[in-house]
Write a structure and sequence with these properties.
Length: 348
């Protein structure tokens, strides 16, 4: 008898869902394989044949097998859980959903499961991170909105806990991140506005603490100086402001003699508010005023506001976040950064 088999008398009937909570032993009885083989198959052990892994995983799914997290943690120190920290408003218009889609694609065919940890407005961003690390309720963590000197990144580095941030910090130690080259985006978008004839350009920036705020400012300033046009950073509003506040700000600026005739937008939501404000001020977007914005969903195109768009793929960002975190959990420490580059495809 093969070492991988158990006596036929102990096997269950294939296709009959057992009573009680399914265990590794349950699957072993149904397949004729040893419990150790079942465990390795569920963890995608490469030394096992793909056919064996597929068969075991299919049966486990059919009978509703779930690993005992507490026992797994006691035995291996692992939870097979990855935590994604999201603010409730990050689900709006698909940012959170796109990240989740990409991360789960990266985790497919692994033993890891994704758990969403909410970050509520009255909670400091460091708190869920501290809870996860101190209680070891996950093997790694993913979060967004990285700040210039982000205390979450500092805490995770100091505790040698696996993580990947969506966005970068300026701590001297390298850390895992996935980011979009916002300086290159703002630079290219500003040059495009200059080419369209704009004489003064503006941008609604993110909160000042966020690292990519610096990148957007640097890109716009460099391009405007090269093109010989004026530029400004919107005052009194930012990407977190209500859309009505952004719209009203744009209306007021557009009605002044020195108002901008071109806007670079860092999000679709701000772009909708900007184009609405320009229209309300009597300007025609695409003719007497111009807008360039990032586009991450099909939602923006439905409104056809006359703006030009540059894609930012959050699903791909999620895949990269998941893949880099798996490598970090496996013990890798080098080359764990990914920078997506903007693709400019102007239609003249």
């Amino acid at each position: 008898m093969s070492q991988e088999e158990v006596p036929p008398a102990t096997r269950g009937k294939r296709g009959v869902k057992p009573s009680g909570k399914p265990t590794l032993k349950t699957i072993a009885q149904m397949t004729g394989l040893a419990v150790t083989t079942i465990s390795r198959a569920l963890n995608n052990a490469p030394e096992l044949a793909q056919e064996t892994r597929d068969r075991v995983q299919k049966i486990a799914a059919e009978i509703g097998y779930m690993p005992d997290r507490a026992a797994l943690r006691l035995k291996t120190g692992r939870t097979n859980v990855i935590s994604l920290i999201l603010e409730p408003d990050e689900q709006i218009y698909g940012f959170g959903t796109s990240l989740v889609t990409g991360i789960t694609e990266a985790l497919r065919n692994t033993s890891f499961h994704l758990v969403i940890t909410p970050l509520f407005r009255n909670v400091e961003p460091i708190e869920p991170i501290q809870h996860i690390v101190r209680n070891r309720v996950a093997d790694g963590v993913i979060f967004s909105k990285a700040e210039t000197f982000d205390e979450r990144i500092r805490f995770l580095l100091d505790n040698d806990f696996p993580f990947v941030s969506h966005g970068r910090s300026r701590w001297p130690e390298p850390h895992p991140f996935v980011d979009y080259d916002n300086e290159a985006y703002a630079y290219g978008a500003t040059l495009r506005l200059a080419a369209k004839g704009c004489r003064r350009v503006s941008i609604i920036l993110p909160e000042s603490a966020l690292t990519y705020t610096e990148h957007l400012k640097a890109g716009m300033e460099r391009a405007a100086r090269e093109a010989g046009i004026a530029f400004e950073f919107a005052a009194d509003v930012n990407l977190g402001s209500p859309t009505d506040a952004i719209r009203n700000y744009v209306i007021k600026r557009a009605r002044r003699p020195d108002g901008p005739d071109g806007y670079v937008c860092a999000s679709e939501i701000s772009a909708l508010a900007v184009t609405g404000g320009l229209s309300d001020a009597g300007l025609v977007v695409g003719k007497t005023a111009h807008v360039v914005t990032k586009q991450s969903s099909s939602m923006f195109a439905q409104f056809q506001p006359g703006a030009e768009t540059v894609p930012e793929d959050f699903v791909a960002a999620g895949r990269n976040l998941g893949s880099l975190l798996l490598r970090r959990i496996a013990g890798e420490t080098d080359d764990l950064q990914f920078m997506a580059q903007p693709v400019f495809d102007w239609q003249d």
